[in-house]
Amino acid sequence: MLQVGEVCRKMGLNPQTIYFYERIELIPAPKRTESGYRLFSDKDVERLSFISRAKALGMSLDEIKDILKLKDGRSLTCQAMQARLLKKLQEIEDNIRQLQGLRDELLPLVDRCRQNANHPDPSHECVVLEESE
Question: Organism's domain of life (predicted)?
Answer without folding.
Answer: Bacteria
